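Consider a typical record:
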Amino acid sequence: MDSSVNDSCRNITGIGLLNSIVGGLLMGISAYALKTGLASSFLALDASIILLILNPLILLAAILALAGFFLLQMAMHKCPISVVTPVSSGLGMVLPIIIAYFLLGEVVVFGKGVGIVLILIGIAVLGRKE
């Protein structure tokens, strides 16, 4: 592998790793917006597909997901997929759980909390310089 690609990604401030982190965060936020938007749209019994698509939270979810996907593609261009995918996927799983806990009052049981901590440790290990 090209050493410039490796150096850019292994440096914690590298643009490739930053793109991966921000992309994962945007995907996580979009999951929350989609859940909230779908819940509010389905409360109306006469909700049509047009009203569903025009729901501001669903539009926000789509925009954030596209931006996250674009940043992940940029990250994969700079970094090995073995770093980008776990970082973005891990953040994409952890962030909706944290948002749901604080904003929706969902319960985080002990096992889920341990899983979140392990995912964050794994992301830190993958992102550190070798």
In short: The mean pLDDT is 78. Residues 41 and 50 are 11 Å apart (CA to CA).
